[in-house]
Write a structure and sequence with these properties.
8 helices; 5 strands
Length: 189
């Protein structure tokens, strides 16, 4: 019995450490544990403190815009602003300009320091709040990505075919249900 208890204690202690090491997106839960990243508040973490003023400006503008577009956040998202690709990759991300991980956090790459990218990821955060993190995974792509591309004010008139179709389908759907019914109707899908 004592050996079983010790084994369970070891597993309990080792599991979070192993998850941290093997599943890098989990690092959004404690971004200041990532080498070179410091959290200056519960909402903003940054790799290069000299860029804090710019990061705060982007955060505040995106938060204000998204709150007005899709409603107030239940809990404001935490955003980690990376100024190097090494920092962004340390969270397990490579290609995207920014990435949202449910309601746990957003990581912005050095390529993603633009308000439209941050609005896009904050919309994904709101989707996770409204639908639930797991349910969001099963919603159609046109709803999830279409909403984010459309309502973020993405400045590109033409996206890649996949995202353009998602945005167009979302826009048509939103026109049919009305913006006031956005979440109510989206939850039915």
């Amino acid at each position: 019995m004592k050996k079983l208890f010790l084994a369970l204690v070891c597993i309990t202690l080792i599991t979070p450490i192993a998850a941290w090491a093997m599943y890098k997106p989990m690092r959004v839960l404690a971004p200041d544990w990532v080498d070179g990243v410091m959290c200056v508040s519960s909402e903003i973490c940054i790799e290069n403190k000299s860029q804090l003023k710019k990061a705060k400006g982007l955060y505040e503008e995106a938060l204000y815009d998204v709150s007005n577009i899709v409603g107030a956040f239940h809990k404001n998202p935490r955003v980690t602003f990376c100024s190097t690709e090494k920092c962004y990759r340390s969270f397990g991300f490579k290609k995207a300009s920014a990435t949202n991980v449910g309601t746990s956090g957003i990581v912005v790459s050095p390529r993603g320091w633009a308000v439209s990218y941050l609005r896009h990821e904050m919309i994904h955060h709101r989707q996770s709040e409204e639908f639930g993190v797991l349910s969001s995974l099963f919603k159609p792509e046109w709803l999830i990505e279409g909403m984010a591309y459309s309502l973020s004010g993405d400045p590109r008139k033409q996206l890649s075919e996949r995202w353009q179709k998602a945005r167009e389908k979302f826009d048509a759907w939103l026109k049919s249900v009305g913006r006031d019914n956005l979440w109510k109707e989206a939850k039915k899908i």
